[in-house]
Amino acid sequence: MLNLKSVDASIDRIPILRDISLNVDPAETIALVGRNGAGKTTLLRSIMGFTSCTGAITFEGRNLFDIAPHQRPALGIGYAPEDRRLFSRFTITENILLPARVAGLDEAETKRRLDRIYLVMPELETLGPRPAGSVSGGQGKMVALGRAMMLSTRLLMLDEPFQGLAPVLANRYAEALGKLREIDPTLAIIITESNPGLLRRFASRMVTVERGRIDSDVATVAAA
Fold this sequence. Notes:
This protein is 31% helix and 29% strand. The longest helix is centred in the last third of the chain and has 17 residues, at 167-183. The model is unreliable at 217-224 (pLDDT under 50). The radius of gyration is 17 Å and the shape is globular. The strands form two sheets. A six-stranded mixed beta sheet has the order 6-7-8-3-9-10, sandwiched between helices. The chain has a four-stranded antiparallel beta sheet with strand order 2-1-4-5, covered by helices on one side. It has six helices and ten strands. It has a single domain (2-219), classed as P-loop containing nucleotide triphosphate hydrolases (Rossmann fold), CATH 3.40.50.300. It has helices at 40-48, 92-103, 107-120, 123-127, 137-149, 167-183, and strands at residues 2-11, 14-24, 29-33, 52-59, 62-63, 77-80, 155-159, 188-193, 205-210, 213-219. It is α/β, with parallel strands linked by helices. The two termini are 25 Å apart. Helix 2 (92-103) runs parallel beside helix 5.
């Protein structure tokens, strides 16, 4: 489904990724692990079109280099950046619905996708009327996940979702991902994380990034 071949990426002419090749199939949950600064975030940003890249990136047979960054979510790609980037004056519900409005989804499809989000994270429906700027950092991560889910019909990418979360919220986030996998088994998921132990129980594959290169691609057995 998603294929990266010999991808190099730079930021301000500084090389970050070097000769990255990676295949992601439908229904896979890829744990992209590595130390801070290894290039994990840049890899996700390159898929979204936010860096200067060479090589090849295709999604379901389409060359992503031919598709503008703002058009890529319409392919069914949802992305939650590490810093959440919520609109603090909007309510939580408005933040979640924003991608649907930008994408021009009709009312019925928007409701279907919103119901899917609430099935995974019912607390977001309860918190919906609150301004996004009033929630905790952990709650904000859940809102960012919900917003990304609004468009992620084929691929969901989460950048360091567990970073800074208290153990209780980290477990709740993991439960939400498990529920998402249960109700949407064909969705491909890529999660970046500095601590691979957090992802071993549900990742189908661990991919290690070291100094801008894929150091190893190790199959793992997800916990039952």
